[in-house]
Model the fold of this input.
Amino acid sequence: MAVGLGDHVHCTVFGNHPKKDVRIEEVANELPPDYQGLLKEVADDIPPGYNVFTAHTCRYHKRPFYHIAMRKGDHLVSLVITRRQPGEDFNAADVVASLNTSGIPVHSAGVQRYSISAFETKGHLAYFVSDLAAGDNGNLMLSLGPMVSSYLKHLES
Done:
């Protein structure tokens, strides 16, 4: 969980980002071509009240991340995706049963004031990290997680 949390805090919380929301077309080119379609799908499916304010490729501890950051009121939310490295797996005991009903095993944690929901595909790790209540963060995962998982699996095939 530290992988996704670290990038969220480094980039979204302490990073230099626009103070206003952006149009998806303004930031789509800041992601690699394979991930630009994901940004469009996220923007189409994002629940009411959430607004994208940046999407980009960034690095944290020399590791590349594909990052879509949103606001919901004063809360900051990140969808952080990175390529899975050898030996990286989530602990199966941390799967949250209620989120597992979405068809993907979801791992959940709370660290200080942050809520983290994450899943893995064959080649990626994906995290929803926010300062929202754990239930709200989980609901965002329920809304967007299956679509993100499907998109990443399509990239891997």
